[in-house]
Amino acid sequence: MNGSRHWSRACVTAVLGLACSASSAAHAQQPSAAAIIQGVDAEVASRVKNVLAFTDIEHYAVYRGNDETHPVAQMTVRDAYKKGAGKTYTILSQSGSGIVLRFGLRPLVEHETNINKPGRVEDSWFTSANYKMRLKPGGMERVNGRNCYALAITPKYKATKMIEGTLWVDAKDYSIVKVQGIASKKPFVFAGTTHMMRQYVNIDGYPMATYAHAESDSFLFGRTVLIIDYTGYHLKVRPDR
């Protein structure tokens, strides 16, 4: 009996020792905050260099009040990107409120065209050149089925396209998985604080947006929600990447 008890204690001690060693090794293997941020910059640079062109279909839906079932306006567009030229949008269909389409969705598409022009698009990349980045404590987080590092991000300048909040990047390759926060600048004078979220998946090895959600509330317009779904991606990538 005593021999069995000593053997059990020895086993428990060994198991605990292995667990502690594994935990210490895992902790030691976690890269530094500086290395993670450098990895994010390198991943963005790789995407910019190697994605030569892509197309996708984007569906925009606007909801008012607490009703997120029946959109007041919808628009479906074809987005075509070409490296060195920027983006062009072709409206495929639209329906609903003429006011929302005219003063909301169409200006939004025009805005996306403008901010993606060469010489301007660089200002909106999620890089340390545009954002102050800080690794959040607590280790890796599970986001959309992927192990991620969470970075607190603060824009270095204010603009409607810039987000103050959290950026989640894949722990393996530092590609963007999700970003969430508030717009650093109101999209227009009567809008309230705009909460934004966008999710990404890797397509042909590069992070591409698949879903976006933006919500604002103001005394003049009330609660407004914009949801964007991105589908049907076709990428052209550099053959010698």
Overview of the structural elements:
The chain is of the alpha+beta class and 241 residues long. It folds into 2 domains: 1-30; 31-237, outer membrane lipoprotein receptor (LolB), chain A, CATH 2.50.20. 27% of the residues lie in helices and 45% in strands. It has 3 helices and 11 strands; from the N terminus they run ααβββαββββββββ. The chain has helices at 2-29, 33-50, 98-115, and strands at 51-64, 73-82, 86-96, 131-135, 141-143, 146-155, 163-170, 176-183, 194-203, 206-218, 222-237. Strands 1, 2, 3, 4, 5, 6, 7, 8, 9, 10 and 11 form an 11-stranded antiparallel beta sheet that branches. A hairpin with a 2-residue loop joins strand 5 and strand 6. The longest helix has 28 residues, at 2-29. The radius of gyration is 23 Å and the shape is globular. The termini are far apart. 20% of the residues are buried.
Please give a quick description of this structure.
The chain is of the alpha+beta class and 241 residues long. Helix content is 27%, strand content 45%.
Question: Helical stretch count?
Answer: 3
Assign an overall shape: globular
Strand content: 35-45%
Q: What is the averaged pLDDT score?
A: 86
Helix content: 25-40%
Structural class per helix/strand content? Answer: alpha+beta
Identify low-pLDDT runs.
Answer: 1-28
Radius of gyration: 23 Å
Name of the CATH first level of the largest domain: Mainly Beta
Q: Could you say how many structural domains there are in total?
A: 2
Identify the quaternary structure here: single chain
CATH architecture of the largest domain: Clam
Write the element-wise H/E pattern from the N-terminal end onward: HHEEEHEEEEEEEE
Largest sheet: 11 strands, antiparallel
How many individual β-strands? Answer: 11
CATH topology of the largest domain: outer membrane lipoprotein receptor (LolB), chain A
Distance between the termini: 65 Å
